[in-house]
């Protein structure tokens, strides 16, 4: 257990201590499911505090002094990204509607979502304690012709941190494509950062959230 772990300053905290209540509960439930039930009770604790005297060296290399450190299983650091990525899958399929998702869901999950998970990781890796505490995400993808799939945002300020979008492109003599991309607050959402393109076909795709029976 110890060999698979990371020691993090309590300034950074872990998502189990620093995210919103809803996310904290969801992650806690997922952690419980992942714990090997054959381990003894001590080994099942993936997050716990350690007396700072056990790690005197860290007071010399950390940017600030702290009273305790967080011992966190390295696998738990991936659960936050997984959880948000799963939200992106669910909201993406809701946005597409059955008329579109029946044709592109497989590529969306296998080609687009893994790249989006990398973006989430890069976006959140340097979050402060307050960033974790206020992290939230949208729950309503846009319908019709809108691009929005899911936005991560600061719950206090309301400012978007990361926008995950899909655009419908038409190429002459080729047909229609779905362009998946993201925007970040770093450049005030001006850059169009492409994640991948999925081909639809020659005919114009239906509007987002259209049911297959409505086509």
Structural class: alpha+beta
Total number of strands: 8
Radius of gyration: 21 Å
- Helix percent reads 25-40%
Give the overall shape, derived from the CA principal axes.
globular
Query: What is the spatial order of strands in the main beta sheet?
Result: 4-5-6-7-8
Mean pLDDT: 75
Residue windows where pLDDT falls under 50 for at least 5 positions: 1-21, 35-77
Strand content: 25-35%
The description of the largest β-sheet is: 5 strands, antiparallel
Q: How many individual helices?
A: 6
N→C terminal distance:
53 Å
Spell out the helices and strands N to C.
EHHEHEHHHEEEEE
Description:
The protein is of the alpha+beta class and 215 residues long. The chain contains six helices and eight strands, in the order E-H-H-E-H-E-H-H-H-E-E-E-E-E. Helix content is 35%, strand content 27%. Helix 2 crosses helix 4 and helix 4 (76-96) packs antiparallel against helix 5. The radius of gyration is 21 Å and the shape is globular.
Summarize the structure.
The protein is α+β, with helices and mostly antiparallel strands and 215 residues long. It is built from 6 helices and 8 strands.
SSE layout and pairing:
Layout (H helix, E strand, L loop, with lengths): L4 E5 L5 H4 L2 H14 L12 E5 L6 H4 L6 E6 L2 H21 L1 H27 L4 H6 E3 L10 E7 L5 E12 L3 E10 L8 E9 L14
Antiparallel strand pairs: 1-3, 2-3, 4-5, 5-6, 6-7, 7-8
Helix pairs in contact: 2-4, 4-5
Keywords:
globular; 8 strands; 3-stranded antiparallel β-sheet; disordered N terminus; single chain; 5-stranded antiparallel β-sheet; 27% strand; alpha+beta; 215 residues
